[in-house]
Structure formats: C-alpha cells, structure tokens
Specification:
With about 350 residues, the chain is an alpha/beta fold. It folds into two domains: about 5-65, no CATH class; about 75-335, Alpha/Beta hydrolase fold, catalytic domain (Rossmann fold). It contains eleven helices and 13 strands. Helix 6 (about 175-195) packs across helix 8 (about 215-225). The protein is globular, with a radius of gyration of 20 Å.
C-alpha cells in the first residue's frame, strides 16, 4: 500500500459525530467493519484502494494494536493506590484476550482503576460520567462498552472515566457483586467527585452509565449510596457516592433483587433491544414504570429488531446506533449539560 496512511471514510462514523481519530482506525475497529468494508482510502488525493484479504487482516490486527495504544495514552488512576481492600495477598497481571470482533476483554482485575477521558476545554460541559463495561461479572468488554463510549462522551464535552472493577463471577473469585464490585464503583464516584476541580467538572453533575452487568452496578449505585464520612482520614471517603444521573444500557436486572425508589433516586435513561433476553427486554419496562411511579425523571428506549450488547460499534445500524445522541439529548433536557 506504498506506506499510505489508511483512514476510514464510513459515513456512519461522521454522522454520529465521532472524530476522525476515533473512527475504525483507532477505537472503533472491528473484524466485521474491516473485513467486509471497502471504505478504506489512502491519504487525500490518492485513489481508493482495493485490498486483498491478507491486507485486510493486517489492517484489522493493526487496529487491535492501535486500540490498546490509544487507551494506554490515557491517564489511569488507581482507586486505592495502596492496595484495594479485599485484594490482600492476591497478585498477578490482568488477563487480556482479543475477541473475534476485535474487542479487548479483560479479567483478573486486582487493582480497580479508572481511565480518564477529559474533553477539550472549549467543548467541556462540566458533566462527567463513570463508564461501566459489562461481561457477566466474569470479564470486562472494554471496547464497545468502554473505550468507544468514553471517546464519544469526551468528544461531546462530557468527561468520562472507564471503571475497571474486580469480578465476582470469575473462576475462583473471592469477590461479590454488592460487597466488592459495587464498592469499586462507589469509590470511583467518590474519586471523580474529590478531583472535580482538578478535572474541570461539576461535583453535582457526576453520573454513571453501565452496560449489561455494568448496568446492574449502575442501578445498584443509584439506590445504595451514602453521603460519605466527614471524619474519614481518606479525603476520598468523605465524598458522597450518589450518582447525579444513571444510564442503564441493556442492564442485568436479577429477578430476586428488590429496589426501593423515591423522588431522590437519580434520574434515569434506559435502553435495550426488543430481541434481548426476557430478563432485560421485559423487566426494563417494569423498571421504567416503578421509577415513574416513584416520581423519578426517566426515559426508556426499546429498539425493535435489536439484541444484546450493541454498545457503540462501527457496525451498529438502525435506531440502536442513535442511542448516544438520545442520551446526550436527555442529559441536556435535564440540565446536566450547562456550558460554563
């Protein structure tokens, strides 16, 4: 290919407002997007090129590496720099596998952290969101439910912080969902709130957005929070763990879980596919009604013909591809996006 720099010219990326650096070549690359697409061109002024299957595979592998590289350039903040409570005596690196579609899937998290995506100052709205990838509480799907989401949010003026949390259902795990995973999320919210001035965000406009198992955690954080301990020696623990809003994308909603909602429950944006499994596609409307009856501002979208796990992918089509814009509009309607 004569050393030409490949760029994605797919209209879907442009229409969704995804910056050129974040389209297929960096964070939105996936096997289907590349192997089936002819929308790859060389530098401006050069003709469109048709590549062989081997070349396309090479591009895909390059994209996988670039995704890791792009994420690695972002600051990572350990939630407990001296070691997470409950992980004493555990060691070893995180495990990363590459799924067939190009997603980076992480497991064996011992030190929970947040990866920081700050918007450009001229775009910043003051709002921020903790992004919670899913993976059945046994792994974390970091691209379409993490990196891509955070990049979209930061490009639209919302500071985003991807949570890497310990996993309760990983093989031989000693962690629990409410005793460990939820505490990791609460600590992330407190950390973002404690550093709001440093990161240019409003401590009263910090939300959560979770996908699948991450959506379950987002919901839990929105009903089980505290105002912090003013006497705590750690200044982070003095902060409230209450999110100011919640985004629930195809969240896991266990049938045996009971929630108590009130008018103080954070406003909620919810979305799933109509073809998702019943515990999501049927329980999400029930959750909407429960929140509405409690006086909580809530909006729900159920996308026809869509199943589980759409997140933000370059291959998304139809109305499900528009959920980030719907979420942004909902935030604006509820006054979370005031420009300073």
């Amino acid at each position: 290919m004569d050393g030409a720099r490949l760029e994605c010219t797919c209209s879907a990326s442009a229409e969704r407002g995804i910056p050129a650096a974040h389209r297929c070549g960096l964070i939105l690359c996936g096997e289907r997007a590349i192997l089936s697409s002819g929308n790859w061109t060389a530098d401006p002024g050069r003709p469109k090129v048709k590549t062989s299957m081997a070349s396309k595979v090479a591009v895909w592998l390059t994209c996988v590496l670039l995704t890791s590289w792009a994420a690695a350039q972002r600051p990572v903040v350990l939630l407990w720099p001296q070691g997470a409570p409950g992980s004493e005596g555990q060691s070893g690196p995180e495990a990363v596998r590459i799924a067939p579609g190009g997603d980076h899937v992480i497991s064996h998290v011992i030190q929970p952290s947040i990866t920081v995506y700050l918007p450009a100052p001229d775009k910043a709205t003051g709002a921020s969101v903790v992004v919670i990838p899913g993976g059945g509480h046994s792994e974390l799907w970091m691209d379409h439910e993490g990196y891509n989401v955070a990049a979209w949010m930061s490009d639209h003026g919302i500071a985003a912080f991807i949570l890497k949390y310990r996993l309760a259902r990983e093989k031989n795990s000693t962690y629990t969902i409410e005793g460990t995973e939820l505490k990791d999320l609460q600590r992330a919210i407190r950390t973002v709130r404690s550093r709001a001035a440093e990161w240019g965000t409003d401590p009263k406009r910090i939300g959560v957005i979770g996908f699948s198992a991450g959506g379950e955690l987002a919901l839990l954080a929105s009903v089980r929070y505290d105002e912090g301990d003013p006497a705590a020696p750690d200044p982070v623990d003095r902060q409230s763990s209450r999110p100011d809003f919640q985004g629930l994308l195809y969240p896991g909603i266990p049938g045996d879980m009971t929630f108590s909602f009130s008018k103080d429950t954070p406003p909620a944006f919810m979305a799933c596919g109509a073809n998702d499994r019943p515990d999501i596609s049927e329980r999400l409307p029930e959750l909407y009604l429960a929140l509405k009856r409690a006086g909580v501002p809530v909006e729900v979208h159920i996308f026809a013909g869509i199943g589980h796990g759409f997140g933000i992918r370059i291959t998304n089509t139809g109305n499900a591809a528009l959920w980030p814009d719907l979420f942004y509009g909902w935030l604006n309607t509820n006054n979370f996006l005031r420009h300073e």
